[in-house]
Amino acid sequence: MTKPASFHYESNWGGCYELSLQVGSTGDAALQTLLSALWSAAGVLGCFGRRDRDHAYEEVPCSVASLTEYGQLAGKVRLPTGRLAV
């Protein structure tokens, strides 16, 4: 049985949801405001980046710089059942 809140199980990454937004300003300050607001509104816990394909995530700041460096950020959310999932 896998642990849905663990970054280390490949089976937790079988699918994903993505959110695509068109924003007026693409300056770092505006993007940082948007990123912070989305992370907060979704109740995302933690912010993690992955450098390689073996699901070795490291905790990183929730920032435009981290998004630029890693290309993708991950976190954990609490499901309606109360369980955490990546």
Helix tally equals 2
Shape: globular
Strand content: 15-25%
Secondary-structure element string: HEEHEE
Task: Assign a percent range to the helix content.
Answer: 10-25%
- Report the radius of gyration as a whole number of Å: 14 Å
- Number of DSSP strand runs: 4
**Major sheet strand order:** 2-1-3-4
Largest sheet: 4 strands, antiparallel
SS content category: alpha+beta
How far apart, in Å, are the first and last alpha carbons? 15 Å
Rounded average pLDDT: 85
Spans where pLDDT lies below 50 across 5 or more residues: none
Describe the structure.
With 86 residues, the protein is an alpha+beta fold. It has a domain at 27-85. 24% of the residues lie in helices and 19% in strands. The protein has 2 helices and 4 strands; from the N terminus they run H-E-E-H-E-E. It has helices spanning 28-41, 64-70; strands at residues 45-50, 57-59, 74-78, 84-85. The chain has a 4-stranded antiparallel beta sheet, with helices on one face. A hairpin with a 6-residue loop joins strand 1 and strand 2. The two termini are 15 Å apart.
Produce the secondary structure layout.
Elements: H1 28-41, E1 45-50, E2 57-59, H2 64-70, E3 74-78, E4 84-85
Give a brief rundown of this model.
With 86 residues, this protein is an alpha+beta fold. It has helices at residues 28-41, 64-70, and strands at residues 45-50, 57-59, 74-78, 84-85.
Question: Which key phrases capture this entry?
Answer:
86 residues, alpha+beta, 4 strands, globular
